[in-house]
Amino acid sequence: MQHITAGESHGPCLTTIVTGVPAGISLTCADIDHDLARRQRGYGRGGRQSIESDHGRVTSGVRFGRTIGSPIAIVIENCDWSNWTEIMSHSGEKSAGTRVTQPRPGHADLAGILKTGSDDVRDVLERASARETAARVAAGAVAKAFLRELGVQIASYVQAIGSVTMPAVEDPASLAEASIEESELRCPDGPTTELMKAAIDAAREAGESLGGVFVVTATGLVPGIGTYAEAARRLDAQIAAAIMSIPAIKAVEIGDGFALAAVVGSKAHDEIHYSQERGYHRYTNHAGGLEGGMTNGETLVVRAAMKPIPTLMRPLASVDIDTHEAVDASRERSDVCAVPAAAVVAEAELALVLAQAYVDKFGGDAMVDIIAARDAYLARIAR
Ligand code: EPS
């Protein structure tokens, strides 16, 4: 299952096309819109989210609520486009004084204009904007619908905003969904949510922005998805790449991640047990559900760090690209904090990687064949 996105932040719309989607998956616009709405939420978002009310219009690949095996195209209109028709016009001449010439440290701005030869940072920032992640979430909703039919569920929560961190969680899969969805920051711990909100208020007051840490999980996975045999198809490598592709993500851990470097081997690995009822199982999950580039049947746990958004209302030093004089970096309307949104985007990225890995393992262009192959596999490994 591959996807591509197109669209600029203030252009007419975002588009995604998802290919390799098997026939026979139950999929509605409500599935897509549910996740689009979750991506828009979060304390600390900027003014853009009150302009947009994202809706995924499916223009190909679905009939009567089921995929038909053709590519799925989804269009998300940008409501803000009506305010940008001149600056984002496809034709005609650019009006004087509308160029952006003061690149923001931390954004794609400077390297982007250097590599493309543009004299207008807007040519770069429009596509580098995290608005594009709405299209990824729409594509991810297709992958989630596929995985749901196979009993795989994806979830996420926010563990830290800035230096405010929630108490450690033994088993992320045990967290109640409602406690995450009801939090304004996707943080299941109520008191921590309030401290996080206060930190965001203080950052806004100071013209600052804040990053944080989120966790994404997948449950219901069969063991043996992914491979040890080819480097590029190791599932941990693919997941890390997919999560790192989200704007502002600077680090990804699987399972206990960096902490594993500090413990001895006997404390790092998850002992193997077997019973008639449960088959092979573990009592710990330091590996985060992945061993040797494959799922091991335990909960898949991915943790990622998002840096603070580079657009600052109290801007950092920059250099004007016309004059090379020292200036303040440009200010654009932006978010103070978008960690909860990034967590929802990471769910989509994880779903897309897992969906492709399931298709690799069980083949087929029809859901009915994939489920039959999965069932035959489960019966074989239970013997
Ligand atoms: C975003 C839309 C953007 C930004 C933000 C995320 O909209 P606008 O630029 O019109 O305010 O709020 O983009 C960035 C964080 C970024 O670095 O570009 C969205 O829909 O998520």
Short description, anyone?
The chain is built from eleven helices and 17 strands. The chain has helices spanning 29-40, 48-51, 109-116, 122-128, 133-149, 177-182, 190-205, 235-244, 265-268, 339-362, 367-382; strands at 2-6, 13-19, 57-60, 62-63, 66-67, 72-77, 153-161, 164-165, 212-219, 249-254, 273-275, 279-281, 290-291, 294-295, 300-306, 317-319, 326-328. Strands 8-7-9-15-10 form a five-stranded antiparallel beta sheet.
Describe the structure.
- With 383 residues, this protein is an alpha+beta fold.
- 32% of the residues lie in helices and 19% in strands.
- The chain has eleven helices and 17 strands.
- It has helices spanning 29-40, 48-51, 109-116, 122-128, 133-149, 177-182, 190-205, 235-244, 265-268, 339-362, 367-382, and strands at residues 2-6, 13-19, 57-60, 62-63, 66-67, 72-77, 153-161, 164-165, 212-219, 249-254, 273-275, 279-281, 290-291, 294-295, 300-306, 317-319, 326-328.
- The strands form six sheets. A five-stranded antiparallel sheet has the order 8-7-9-15-10. A four-stranded antiparallel sheet has the order 1-2-6-3, with helices on one face.
- The longest helix has 24 residues, at 339-362.
- It is globular.
- The model has no long low-confidence stretch (mean pLDDT 96).
- Ligand EPS binds next to helix 5.
- Ligand EPS binds at residues 9, 46, 48, 80, 129-131, 133-134, 247, 309, 311, 332-335, 338, 341.
